[in-house]
Amino acid sequence: MDDQPSTDPLRGLPDPAGSSVPPLPPAPIVDPATSWSAPVAPRDRSAHRRGRILGAIALVVLLVAGVAGAAAFFLLRGSGEELLGMVPADADVVAVAYLDPSAGQKMNLLRMTDKFPDLGGSQDLQERVRDLLDGALQGSGMTHDDLDWVGVEVAVAVNVTRGQAPSIAVMVDSDDDDAARAAIQKLASSDGAPTRTIEIDGVESTVSEGFGGGALALVDGTVVMGTDPHAVENVIRTAKGEAPGIQQNQAFIDATAALPDGRLGLAFVNVRHLSGEFGDALGTALASAGTSDFDAIEGFGFSLSAESDGMAMDLVTAYDETRLSAEERAAMSEPDHPNALLAMVPADAYGLLAFGHLDTTLKATLDQLAQQDPGTARELEKLGLTGADGLLAQLSGDIALEVGPAQGAPLGGTFIVGTNDPDATAASITDTLGQLPLGGQRLVRRPNGRTTFVDTPPNWQTTVYHGVKITYLDAGSQPTLAWAIVGDAVVVGSSVADVQQVVDLSQNGGGIDQEPGFTTAAASVPSGDGVLFVDIQAALDGVRTQLDPSAQAGFDEQVKNLAPISTVVVGFSNGASAQHMRLLVQIP
Length: 588
Hints:
The protein is an alpha+beta fold. The chain has helices at 47-72, 103-113, 122-136, 177-188, 229-239, 250-256, 271-288, 326-333, 358-372, 374-382, 391-394, 422-435, 496-508, 516-522, 536-545, 549-558; strands spanning 28-31, 36-39, 93-98, 150-159, 167-174, 195-200, 203-208, 214-219, 222-226, 265-269, 297-307, 310-319, 351-355, 395-406, 409-419, 441-445, 451-455, 460-465, 468-474, 479-486, 489-493, 530-535, 567-574, 578-586. Mean pLDDT is 79; it is low at 1-60, 67-78 and 285-292.
């Protein structure tokens, strides 16, 4: 199969996502048997046929990926990215599965699968996949043996047009062209429907009425299946270099440049192009959720990779920074700094969520909210949360939320927020809490003899611990909410004991920022702007200790497949024109 290299990545080409790139014209289809030609036009297909073609495409992708992935999993040959050279530049969604990934990826996978005994060895995996394939292919006249020709890559390209069925093209690398041709004929005539041979851009292709009018062709060692002949034609023209490919699309370049080189799969969503079709609807939906920068998004890039310490998923959101507001640019360009609040998080926390630069992000969000919903914005200011002297204006932008074991309770936690003015923040919190309905109710008898419930004010109490005043809500049996100013941070805890623990950490050290499990995990992801961390084994142990001894054995059996996973960590990092998020499931 020949790759089509790019010699001038889109700089001198029209933007496939913009109006300067016209859609591909309908290609004439010539039937050699009758010597007639007709343009490839959208057919009036029934919902039944449309469902069959989309279902057939999805089935082929899943089945091919499954059998070839299982067969190639234990090889060490590795594959390149040849199929991307066949994906048209205007594809709205692109996905590539590397069925024979690099040697490093395979070695990492082998190491991890050895830790999950339920998966079995290579033979077990392949037998399971073959059984699944044979069951799914029942009635088609095909078995897993009909897919032995599949090579090292599978790619899918989707084009979406409002008011029309999606146009889908699937590309499958072939190791045996003769077997691939036989599979094409078998698939096209699987339900006995008539087929015909046509020529698409000089390539002999098969069209099946039973396949919903879709087309199948073999192009340079690649099987191409499309929901319509035009989808196949677009791939053929791209493969021949007659039309630009996705690797020449600047949105694709920007969204995938930061993804790791070694990977098992790649996906791309051309948001810039989709916004031309659905921008009004998507923009309205996202704006209602507080997102104002949809028009600035170029694309999403996604990858899955096997790392030496676990499985990783990366997501990159690429932006056109010229379309960002000044506030959004400021929020994304804030220089990174260590989050000092992590030192106040207990080392035995089951999980935590920490962010930096929340002040600029909140300001951009609240400015958008004020434009869309002035009433809500006024209520927030009335509560003392917003405005020039509001609570949010006093915050440093760093936050940390943790959940972990607690004294006398199954679970506890604290919410820690950095402040630039501790005294003003304490006054703001006192005022805000005084306006919230945190009290109880009691039953009283009216002079007329009737009884009714009336609100009672909250019973706030204070205590001093190592020089720090802690205010707590006394609900009778035990305190249910407590808060304090600890250094340059506001600490809100589920109990007085939770806040006291933070006070100890602030004065003596020993927080999660010094715990090796957390520091190692955080160093494996881009955590400059935020991190989500879950200690899987600590959380499972915490749940187990709450169970009756008679139920612990059953619990252990249910979660045994989680035993190899130590932690899950997600890191976030912003740049001037992109956001990078990485999820790492650590399997040491």
